[in-house]
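hey so i finally got around to running both of the ones u sent me last week. sorry it took forever, my laptop kept dying halfway thru and i had to restart like 3 times lol. anyway pasting them below in the order u listed, first the sequence line then the structure token line for each. didnt double check formatting much so if smth looks off just lmk and ill redo it

first one:
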Amino acid sequence: MNGEPRKIRLIMELRRSGVVDTRVLAAIERVPREAFVPRPFLDQAYENTALPIGQGQTVSQPLVVALMTQALELGERQKVLEIGTGSGYQAAVLAKLCRRVYTIERHKPLLLEAEQRFRALHVHNITAICGDGARGWPEQAPFDRILVTAAATGIPPNLLEQLSDNGVMVLPVGNQGGEQIIVRVRKVNGRPSAENLFPVRFVPLVEGAPPEA
């Protein structure tokens, strides 16, 4: 299956929908989404839709991935923390745009599959662990940017603490089944300021130790 025409159509759709950062569009174009999609859904790899990946999780809609990545305002020397590895697709996009990605997934089977994909695609600037995303990764803090791909009921204090000064965190905030919105948090002189960006629907951010695989 030649996905190139579908990929080009998707990139054009993202541009029409407000993704104007050319670096982000180039990263989306360079990361093969079909490598992160289960076999039964391969024909939908370049549709602008979320797809199931197991463990009750999804690989996010490309537009949401692109808009959240754009909202991070990434620089190529930055160190990024991602909460919720999932299929690894978002981490692979981030890895094209920054120095190093640290990513946390609470479902061990998903993490192992994502790490296999990173190796197969020769993506070497991602470090992944299985753990409690709400705890963050204090041993590697501070982070220039933090991206959360599960909905929190508020701004998680642990993650805010691990965000460097002048850092940016992008996350969905809201209750499952209720209204959720992507929020961009800037930390200046130790104090956060938040702005609402656009509505979304994500699985909830679960606190506590991950399940045993």
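and the second one:
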Amino acid sequence: MNSVSSGVFISEIDRERFGFKTARITGITAGGLSDVLDFCAKEKVELLIARCGMSDLAAAQMMEKKGFLLMDTLVYYTRDLTRPLPQSAHTAARFRPIHADEEEAMVSVAKQSFNGYSGHYHADPRLDNHQCNDVYVDWARKAFASRADDDNFLVAEMEGSIVAFGVFRLNSAEEGELFLGGVHPDFQGHGIYLAFLCRAVEWCLARRAGRIIISTQLNNIAVQKVLTKSGFEVSRGYYTFHKWFV
């Protein structure tokens, strides 16, 4: 993996998926932009995916001057786990750990729930929509393959079928995360997402984490309403820019 001190690196996963030599960086600054562009020129990068802090307007405006286009705004919500637990959702769904032979059933839900998802990939008209959908399906497959031996990968069943999934992880001894999940469109509005939130909180508490984080798109209003009602607060955010060199 080629990189410079500014943190930019070649993303082999994105190159394999889309066919363009792609670089990525999170936390780009106005002062470091020149080094990043030099790296891209040296490495013959075709697409740069760059994220800057939501409060770093100097970086955002400098990228705009250099021909970057804003693709999305990613926001992180945090919940202090020393506070009382959120009220459990009333749902007819049954929750349990995923079984070893249920990968394809879970993937089917992922395909439906992430179809046309409003992330930075789908926002770029130069990227194929079907390949953009596959990004999230690939993440789900990788999460399934690397799942722990405990209950960190749950599914929800309704009417005898898997209709949702949620994956938890520890980022550190202090921080847990509900980092991936999807609910089939036909079963949204049944309290399943809130139920996953409650189970994620319980999972993190059982591992003595002090907080839990969740990220979502700024325009995903429905999810943010659930998060705020459940005691989550906005903690940070990032603007995602794309810069094409071809």
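quick thing i noticed on the 2nd:
The mean pLDDT is 92.
anyway thats it, ttyl
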